[in-house]
Write a structure and sequence with these properties.
This protein is of the alpha/beta class. It contains twelve helices and twelve strands.
């Protein structure tokens, strides 16, 4: 098994992430950190292979690591996530016991011990509407209104998922060889959505197991540049629709998101409201092709 960690200004969490996987082949792909991440990796983890790359996004960074990795499994580990004792071995054992699994995800917890819900449903127009128009708030326990966030999914037993958050993913090399690596057109957000969709289309499974637990802080990199990262999140939804459901469906998604974000811009004060309003203007200020251009 090979561990791939993509970093971008990853202090203070990356040290704990790398410490938790000592003893395994580990590749750190740094996307231009300026906070001392590279220096820390070199000093504290001399056995780690360090690649310094131009920042082409999370998917591209992960691909760079996977291309030089030797293992039969890739553990894609966020720089703000770490394995609890024995979790890595249990995660791999579960994957080995399920030969039809392309992706296996562990149970995630916040640092304070709370469950972090990592199961998601593939974006559709309806599911995007339930999220961005607050419809899911009307009935938080309804599967119909909360499928985007995997509502009703039990985190107490192994189950099949549509896709899992990319914070911690164990990926079978054989499956990746079959469908290809991350689509690098997804700069950040939705790259794991697209990958899991392709795995499932090829007949592989995406599985969750509660027997392995990892801690994930969440948002350690995205909070540093929340406004442009939110735009990338929205772009990822539209790109997914365009790639898998066609330009017409993506155009409908663009209009839906524009309306919902204009509404959010009116409802939320301060920087958050401004980000919503600016993203709505961006959605309406260019064609679908221009919007999806890197």
């Amino acid at each position: 098994m090979s561990v791939i960690v993509v970093t971008w200004n990853a202090l203070p969490w990356v040290e704990q992430a790398l410490e938790s996987v000592r003893g395994h082949e580990t590749i750190v792909v740094d996307n231009g950190s300026s906070d001392g991440t590279v220096e820390l990796v070199r000093e504290r983890f001399p056995d780690v292979r360090l690649l310094q790359e131009e920042n082409k996004g999370f998917g591209a960074g992960s691909n760079a690591g996977m291309r030089v990795a030797a293992g039969d499994w890739f553990l894609l580990l966020n720089s703000d996530a770490w394995a609890k004792e024995g979790a890595l071995e249990r995660l791999v054992a579960f994957g080995e016991a399920h030969p039809d699994a392309a992706v296996v995800g562990p149970k995630l917890r916040f640092p304070d011990g709370r469950l972090q819900r990592s199961v998601r449903g593939f974006p559709t127009l309806w599911r995007l509407a339930t999220e961005y128009l607050f419809l899911r708030k009307l009935a938080p326990r309804s599967r119909a209104l909360n499928a985007f966030y995997g509502n009703g999914f039990g985190y107490d037993r192994p189950l099949e998922a549509e896709f899992l958050m990319g914070s911690v993913l164990l990926v079978r090399r054989e499956a990746a060889d079959t469908v290809g690596l991350f689509d690098e057109d997804f700069f950040m957000f939705s790259e794991e959505t697209d990958w899991c969709y392709r795995f499932r289309q090829a007949g592989w499974k995406v599985l969750f197991t509660p027997d392995a637990e990892f801690v994930h802080v969440g948002g350690a990199s995205t909070r540093q540049n929340w406004s442009p990262m939110f735009r990338e999140q929205v772009r990822g939804h539209v790109r997914f629709l365009a790639k898998h459901h066609g330009a017409r469906e993506a155009e409908r998604g663009r209009r839906l998101l524009r309306v919902s974000l204009r509404l959010r811009g009116l409802l939320f004060p301060g920087d958050r409201g401004r980000t919503y309003a600016e993203t709505a203007r961006w959605l309406g200020g260019s064609s679908l092709e221009e919007l999806l251009a890197r």
